[in-house]
């Protein structure tokens, strides 16, 4: 008796604009090593990267006397993504994007009994306890909330501060926000580049209006920057954790700040959103750390301590729970997702003993 692991055949990979190479890489490399072919649909706004990556991979395949069609890509919109999701020849579809679109992909793939690997929205919180290293926490929060203009799934969206250090942390955070260099991200020292498209900029403006309508107080930022490109101000908002807008992911450098009194309250706030990707706590207490990473702690797929939410080490299993989709990319057993599993019982003899003492004579 043994288990056999065989390739699925074809793996479909649909990636988002914000990591147009990396997400492909950690899907396609494992899928190819496992013996599959890959069909890749890159984001419609990053077609040049899709083409360039495909040519690089095709060149490697050709040098090793392998058909370049082992790795195939498409440029286009939702129609191509739907075709990949519907195609019964593609047993596994790996999708990275919003929870809304991911749910649609999952429903289509499930209708044909295919498998999905979903990496969807994040709504990540950093908790700062009263015993935390404040300097370390502030530095981490600023980078996690502002870096890549808030356009990564592991961006810090919510900052939960113990009431005894609330104003102290907020004051320090405002000081470092004033030092943020905004401009061309290719220039050294620039932390905050533009949003991806004009639509992203409109979503930011709409988000700020909704925040204000739900009682949010803009502490800093909150406006677009009138210049060439889709630049917006890094924004900090004081708001209730119960506000509906806090439950949603605004893909921009907007940070919600709120107070808590006890660790239990902070954990409940962390877990109160539909998404469950990344989370982090800043503390020096072992008891707090092990509560946080245990069964009554964070319900996220990534549970960090004294590092920001966006410190996703791809050597570990990357992914999240709840509306983040439950998928895991990389990690010790990720290869299993890209293979078909068979349990094989082999009889090498000339006899077949039957159960329950049955004998045909």
From TrEMBL:
The transmembrane residues are: none
Quote the catalytic residue positions: 119
Query: Where is the signal peptide, in residue numbers?
Result: none
Task: List each copy of the Aldehyde dehydrogenase domain by range.
Answer: 4-342
Q: Per the UniProt record, which EC number(s) apply here?
A: 1.2.1.3
Which is one GO molecular function term here?
Answer: aldehyde dehydrogenase (NAD+) activity
The record's catalysed reaction(s) read:
an aldehyde + NAD(+) + H2O = a carboxylate + NADH + 2 H(+)
- Enumerate the Pfam families for this protein: Aldedh
The record's keywords, sorted A to Z, are: NAD, Oxidoreductase
Q: How does it assemble?
A: Homotetramer.
Regarding protein family, the annotation reads: Belongs to the aldehyde dehydrogenase family.
Please give the name of this protein: Aldehyde dehydrogenase family 7 member A1
Q: Which organism is it from?
A: Populus trichocarpa
Starting at the broadest rank, the lineage of the source organism is: Eukaryota, Viridiplantae, Streptophyta, Embryophyta, Tracheophyta
């Amino acid at each position: 008796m043994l288990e056999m692991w065989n390739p699925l055949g074809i793996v479909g990979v649909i990636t988002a604009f914000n990591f147009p190479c990396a997400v492909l890489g950690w899907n396609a490399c494992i899928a190819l090593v496992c013996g599959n072919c890959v069909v890749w649909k890159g984001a419609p706004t990053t077609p040049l990267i899709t083409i360039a990556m495909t040519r690089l991979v095709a060149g490697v395949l050709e040098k090793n006397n392998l058909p370049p069609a082992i790795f195939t890509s498409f440029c286009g919109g939702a129609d191509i993504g739907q075709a990949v999701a519907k195609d019964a020849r593609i047993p596994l579809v790996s999708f990275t994007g919003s929870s809304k679109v991911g749910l649609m992909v999952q429903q289509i793939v499930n209708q044909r009994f295919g498998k999905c690997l979903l990496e969807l929205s994040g709504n990540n919180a950093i908790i700062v306890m009263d015993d935390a290293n404040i300097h370390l926490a502030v530095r981490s929060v600023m980078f996690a909330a502002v870096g890549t203009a808030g356009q990564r799934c592991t961006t810090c969206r919510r900052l939960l501060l113990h009431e005894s250090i609330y104003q102290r942390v907020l004051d320090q955070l405002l000081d470092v926000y004033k030092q943020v260099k905004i401009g061309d991200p290719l220039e050294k020292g620039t932390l905050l580049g533009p949003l991806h498209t004009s639509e992203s900029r409109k979503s930011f403006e709409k988000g700020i209006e909704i925040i204000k309508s739900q009682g949010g107080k803009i502490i800093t930022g909150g406006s677009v920057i009138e210049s060439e490109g889709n630049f917006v101000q890094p924004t900090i908002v004081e708001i209730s954790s119960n506000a509906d807008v806090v439950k949603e992911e605004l893909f921009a450098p907007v940070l919600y700040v709120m107070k808590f009194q006890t660790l239990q309250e902070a954990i409940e706030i962390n877990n109160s959103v539909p998404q469950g990707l990344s989370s982090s706590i800043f503390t020096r207490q072992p008891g707090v750390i092990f509560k946080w990473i245990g069964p009554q702690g964070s319900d996220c797929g990534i549970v960090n301590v004294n590092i920001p939410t966006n410190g996703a080490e791809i050597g570990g299993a990357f992914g999240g729970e709840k509306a983040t989709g439950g998928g895991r990319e990389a990690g010790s057993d990720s290869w299993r997702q890209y293979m078909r599993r068979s349990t094989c019982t082999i009889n090498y003899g000339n006899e077949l003993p039957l159960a329950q003492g049955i004998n045909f004579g």
